[in-house]
C-alpha cells in the first residue's frame, strides 16, 4: 500500500499523519518535527510543494490580515477547524490501518495451519449457509411448492430481493475494487469474477437482508428468532475468521443488507402486481 505520508507533503511539517514505513503504520506527533530519516532540508519543509502548502496554511494568510483578529490572540472558530485540512484523511487512514490490523489478527481460520485452522471446516459450512446459490435455489423451491397465495407472495419477494442483492453487491464491488486480504485463500465455490473484490461482503449483505426478511415475514418462536440473528452474526464473523474479508467489508455489508430490506419493502410485489405479471407471462 502506498504510504499516505509520501502522498502528503504537509505530513512532514507537523500535521498529524499516519505514517507508513516498511509497510508498518505508526502514529506521529501533532507538534514535534517528524521524519527522522529524511534529510534536514526536507525536515524543515523547505521543498517547494511543502513551502507552498505551508504558506497557504499560515494563519496570517488565512486570516487575510492580522487586524481581522485584533492582536492575533485566539483564532475564530472557523480558522480552528481549518487548521488541520487533512484531518478527515488522517482519520480515514487511521481507521483503515486499524481495520487491516484487526482483520489480519482475526483471520485465524485463513488456512488449515492457522492458529484456529481446525475450525475452518465449520466456518466453511457457515459460509455455504450464506451463499447465494442455496438461498436462490431454496427460495425458488419454496415458491414452487407453496400452495397459498401469501406464501407465494412472500417467497417471490424474497427471490427478487436476493437477485437485487446480487446486482447491488456486484455494482459496489466493481466500483470500489478493494482487494481481498492477502491472507485469504481463494477457494470459495461458485464465484463471479467480481468476487475477487472484497467490499462489501456479499455474504454479510445477504445475511442481514435475509435475516430481517425472515424475522418480519415468518412467525417464529423467540428461540428461533434468536437463532436467525445468531446465524446472521456468525456468517459475518466467519468472513473475517476465514480471511475472506476485512472487518469494514462485513460491517458495511451488514448495513447494506439492512437497507436492502427496506428497499424490498418499498418495492414489494403485491398479489395484484403478481397476477398482472403472471397474466402477461401466460
Ligand atoms: C442465478 C445466479 C446468477 C446465481 C449466482 C449465485 C452466486 C454465484 C452468488 C455469488 C455468491 C458469492 C460467492 C458471493 C461472495 O461473497 P463474499 O462475502 O465473499 O463477498
From TrEMBL:
The keyword Zinc does not apply. It comes from Pogonophryne albipinna. GO terms for molecular function: sphingosine-1-phosphate phosphatase activity. Belongs to the PA-phosphatase related phosphoesterase family. It is found in: Endoplasmic reticulum membrane; Nucleus inner membrane. GO terms for biological process: lipid metabolic process. Residues 32-47 have a biased composition (Polar residues). The keyword Methyltransferase does not apply. It comes from the Eukaryota. Pfam families: PAP2. The chain crosses the membrane at residues 154-176, 213-238. InterPro entries: PAP2/HPO, PAP2/HPO_sf. Residues 153-265 form the Phosphatidic acid phosphatase type 2/haloperoxidase domain. GO terms for cellular component: endoplasmic reticulum membrane; nuclear inner membrane. Its EC number is 3.6.1.68. Coiled coil: none annotated. CDD domains: PAP2_containing_2_like. Keywords: Endoplasmic reticulum, Hydrolase, Lipid metabolism, Membrane, Nucleus, Transmembrane, Transmembrane helix. SMART domains: acidPPc (SM00014). This is Polyisoprenoid diphosphate/phosphate phosphohydrolase PLPP6. Residues 1-79 are annotated as: Disordered. Its main location: endoplasmic reticulum. It catalyses: (2E,6E,10E)-geranylgeranyl phosphate + H2O = (2E,6E,10E)-geranylgeraniol + phosphate; 1,2-dihexadecanoyl-sn-glycero-3-phosphate + H2O = 1,2-dihexadecanoyl-sn-glycerol + phosphate; (2E,6E)-farnesyl diphosphate + H2O = (2E,6E)-farnesyl phosphate + phosphate + H(+); presqualene phosphate + H2O = presqualene alcohol + phosphate. It is an enzyme of class 3 (hydrolase). It is a multi-pass membrane protein.
